[in-house]
Design goal:
By secondary structure, this protein is an alpha/beta fold. It is built from 13 helices and 13 strands. The radius of gyration is 21 Å and the shape is globular.
């Protein structure tokens, strides 16, 4: 039986040509021609005030924490069902993480739980748009404005997605994207920070350029560059940016391909869901998703574990996702869970991600579904 991998990094065929162009320009370090082209593409596509490529979404989040002036003793609200980088970025600044429960329908932070978790030390809210499906941003914005808080959107999975026609990553003060090899568009390792207010753009450039005003120097705004503030090396190589730009040029085709696979999964798995053997993803009416992943929910952890083994034995790679951060050693050390964990652990134990990537064939989707159906027929 042929193997169906969980992920295949996206590749459109013109990546190597773009890399050769970058090399020919003899400027392959950070912030070269292709880095600028990618930033311009992101600004045009999302309408954000300023976009900057970074070496990862983790670095974009760390830049956002610095731009929010997070200080030791501050508190930051985020869900526990997320990747470690969401919390790490703020822990590195000395903040304590306050985890709140998620909604069982979207796996996103429960916006109704945020306000009760606030204290006089709260400085920011970090909504995570799971599976490219938006959090309820209107309510989160209302809370942030009421209490004078910053919003950092973890939109690692959110390229192409929108909330009420607003691209994810552009609604809060800062948005952080990922272009890791598992994402819809990839540069291997990489990310971007979206900055709503262009007035924060110069400061972000300084942070990204190791604390220097080098970007302003290259634009002729200062006669020499020097160390002016704190910062780090958040710049990706222009070779990576060239690889990514090839995918930006084919972004709509990649998106359409993934949407076809996502819709086919939903169509073929609906009978199992109607018989209440599994649950399918929920996409609220106000949300436009991007087919970043297709997941199902099983009855419980034991059933999920058995299904993963069953699929693996038949050549299908399916995986679980995050272990809730509040249950981890570092989560207990650097944060606390506010309120009841009604859904975070329970729902994370049930969630199973199916193969999803650009170029996934229709017959591969059918095989995955047939294998899942066979499991439930035998069980």
């Amino acid at each position: 039986m042929s193997s169906i991998p969980f992920n295949v990094p996206p590749y459109v065929g013109s990546e190597m040509k773009k890399i050769e162009e970058a090399v020919a320009l003899r400027k392959i370090s950070g912030d070269g021609v292709f880095s600028k082209r990618c930033a311009e593409w992101l600004e045009g596509r999302t309408g954000t005030g300023k976009a900057l490529l970074t070496t990862s979404c983790s670095d974009a989040l760390e830049m956002a924490a610095l731009l929010c002036d997070i200080q030791p003793g501050d508190e930051v609200i985020c869900p526990s069902f997320t990747f470690v980088s969401t919390a790490n970025a703020f822990v590195l600044r000395g903040a304590a993480i306050v985890f709140v429960d998620i909604r069982p329908d979207t796996m996103n932070i429960d916006e109704r739980k945020i306000e009760a978790a606030l204290t006089n030390r709260t400085r920011a809210i970090v909504p995570v748009h799971y599976a490219g499906v938006s959090c309820e941003m209107d309510e989160i914005v209302r809370i942030a404005e009421k209490y004078g808080l910053k919003i950092v959107e973890d939109a690692a999975q959110g390229i192409f997605s929108a909330y009420k026609n607003r691209p994810l990553g552009t609604i809060g003060d800062f948005g952080c994207l990922s272009f890791h090899e598992t994402k819809n568009l990839s540069m291997g390792e990489g990310g971007a920070i979206l900055i709503r207010d262009r007035n924060n753009g110069d400061r972000a450039e300084v942070l990204r350029e190791k604390g220097t005003n080098r970007s302003q120097f290259w634009r002729g705004q200062v006669d020499k560059y020097t160390w002016v503030s704190v910062g780090s090396s958040f710049l990706p190589s222009d070779i990576n940016a060239a690889y990514l730009y090839a995918q930006f040029e084919n972004a709509d085709a990649i998106h359409s391909d993934r949407m076809r696979s996502w819709n086919l999964y939903r169509e073929l798995l609906s009978p199992l869901a109607e018989r209440e053997r599994i649950e399918l993803p929920t996409v609220p009416q106000d949300c436009e998703h991007n087919a970043h992943m297709f997941y199902i929910k099983t009855k419980n952890l034991d059933e999920r574990s058995r299904l993963i083994r069953y699929l693996k034995d038949r050549g299908v790679e399916a995986v679980f996702h995050y272990v809730p951060l509040h249950s981890s050693p570092a989560g207990k050390r650097f944060g606390r869970f506010h309120g009841e964990d009604a859904y975070t652990t329970r729902e994370s134990d049930r969630l199973l991600r199916l193969p999803m990537f650009y170029g996934l064939h229709r017959d591969q989707v059918a095989t995955v579904v047939e294998t899942i159906e066979a499991f439930y027929q035998e069980n």
